[in-house]
Amino acid sequence: MKIWIVIAIIAIISSSIALFSLQDMPLPSDSMDRSELSGEVTIGLILPLTGDLATHGEENYEGSKFGVSEFNKHLQEIDAPWHLKLVSEDSATNPVIALEKLTSLNAKGIDIILGPETSSNIRNIKGYADSNNMLLVSCCSTAPALAIPNDSVYRLVPDDSNQGTAIGKLLQHEDISVVIPVYRGDTWGDGLKVASSDSFTKRGGMVDEGIRYNPESPEFSASTSLLAGKVQGYVDEYGADKVGVLFLGFAEVLQFSQSAAEHEVLDKVRWFGPGAYTKLHSLVEDPIGVEFTNSVMLTTVQAAASKNPTYEKVQAHLIETLGKTPNGYVHSSYDAAWIIGLTMLETQSSDVTLIKEAIPGVAENYSGAIGSTKLNEAGDLAQANYEIWGTRDGQWVLLGQYNYSDDSITMG
Amino acid sequence: MIYDPIFSDAIIFASLLALLSIGLTLTYITTRVPNFAHASFATIGVYIALIVTHVWGFSPYASIPISFVISGVTAVLLYTFILKPLIRKGASQAIQMIATLAFDLIVIAMLNITADYIVKTFQITSREFSLRSYDVEFMGLPLIVVLAPLTIAILAITLHIILRKTKFGIAMRASTENSDLAGTVGINVKLIYGVSWLMGGGFAGVAGALMSLWFVGDPNLGPQIMPSVFAASIVGGFFSIYGAIAGGILVGLTEVLGTRFLAGEFGAWLIAYRPLIPLIFIVVTLFLAPKGLAGINWSKLRRYVRV
Question: Tell me, what's the ipTM?
């Protein structure tokens, strides 16, 4: 008797879940009839809301959400009979989970996706997206290896071959002779390390083989000890002012700095970095972090966003929502939502093939929170100017600008 | 002579690993189930330390007793509501092991919810955080360098006294060696097991509170360090508390100092392969000494070496 009661309860619960799931599923008109837009048009969002990049992910989620909300207001103003609906999934900063989420969205008939955020995630899901005719518009992925024309990936950031060039120029500008890269052992870290090293070597600098660390590592004592040994060797040979450490990582830069602060020689040389942790709050809030980064005059480069009314509006909204200054990629997240929406508006369709064809033209004519969104032939942001930031006196300070067109740096 | 901070790093890592390994071994001795959620009990301690430090404004060390209780109670919940019913139904060891894995996923999900709540409510970084800056100095060193090994020493002595000198300890040893026989002589075996799980989970909580001062705090910290904890317990023999301590120290020191030495000798590329070290320990131990350090006949080995 008991077993029948249990089976009955399970059957009732399963039916209820199935019913609710059906309610959440997009209507056939959303996914099948793509010739005319009407009602709710669903797009997906895959961001790291947990895991290593959760802080960034949460900020970019708010940026995307604000982009969709503002675009829907625009649709209302022009009396369009449709609006965008965002279905969000958490990649957990994990390439395997990102693929699971992508397949799940595809199964629901959602084939236009904002995100994912990291190059590792995109690398893992790109094959699936390509073969299933999906569209990925990423706010933040920068790995040069993913700059591929005519694929399913568009990126509203310049790829890291440009950032590497800017870093190489910055090192030369700061009169560094030898640099030791410390970098994440993943697609992004490997790509940026190569790009930065090539740029600096071409300018006459010397690059050590560097230290490739495991991004999952919960502590960095062996890496910092090895780094201290290397730095000491170069300091003895070239002098402390000629030696630099290039740390290519994400938020783990704080823990690395805390561990590095134990080694006296590591705060005698200059440290440099990428946009991935530029303006990272924890670095200037943590007592050890702030002391160390001030001491090494940490200097980073970040893709420059042109300050315009849309930029200011997004910035003000996110500061109010998050209670802190957001990372520099939130503006790309906002613009990604707009570009997808505007392309649908122009093509009057949610057909991926049509949208892929139309995106470059729409992006070229749209001026968003990041300014010009013109894309290059690989579908990545064409403009590649960078801001130079640094931690000085316990806060992030804008120090200058790198101009890609004439490979020059203007400080001040 | 210049002091290399890697030695204190190695001492801390080895001590925390030993502490985690003691708890894992304690729970394995009683129920014979490798508890895959064990390291996440430590992560609970990490988050309690975060709340105690950033929300309540106390030292991270103040979180130790709270972490012991909350992580211990979580372990008891796993034992009472999941493992005990499964054991009663005659579930195999594999099923129980999978149940602990499922419980681990629940704990990680709860930790993610907690992390989100902390961010939204208190505007505090609750992922990829570290409380290292909140440690205090003792004789020119961070206090944890002294406190972590001291905690192991205190625990080892306390456990030795409990197991050898108290009625509870004798009952516990009897229950683990032959639970049916222990039950027939009036020992409340289930209570003994429950207390063992409370202590095992509690030790993980204490380790977690201390880990917050050295490790990167994140809801996924547990699965990241679990291979090292298992390696420590397996090297120790999985049935011996003293073996767990020795295994934790051996695996911990090798992971930090071994990686550093090998990277210095053969190239920095080796740094990224540090996670292989605990796996190598597991494989080598299972092949050469399946009963771990505790199962080796040292006097026989010494005689063999002399010959």
Answer: 0.85
